[in-house]
User: Fold this.
Amino acid sequence: MKNNGFTLVEVVVSIVILALVVTGLVNIFLSSKRLALRTRSRMTGAELGKRFLDPLQSYIRQDTWAGSNCFNTNNPSSPANMAACPNVPTSYPIGSSVYTPQYFISDAGTDVKKVKVKITWPSE
Assistant:
């Protein structure tokens, strides 16, 4: 059966090829969007981690090292009590979202402490 010089089989094959090409392009765009969103979340997490860890530097002093500070009163498996470090933020609002940290402090060697920050991420 001929229709304007093309057979029906040629039209179906060309539509299938076009659909495969368009599907591939759509998948490329969707995966790049997911990658951009994941990268955005990682950058936000890194900046928030820096925001929560920077104030701890003021408590690393020789005159308070042996005394009571937020590095000496902790259990590595539970969040540290940050009451001995009053300038350390306990929440950080950005727009309508509030980010909350938990500090986990452990010994990492002789006179070296390791601090991990777990940030509670608001659901969107």
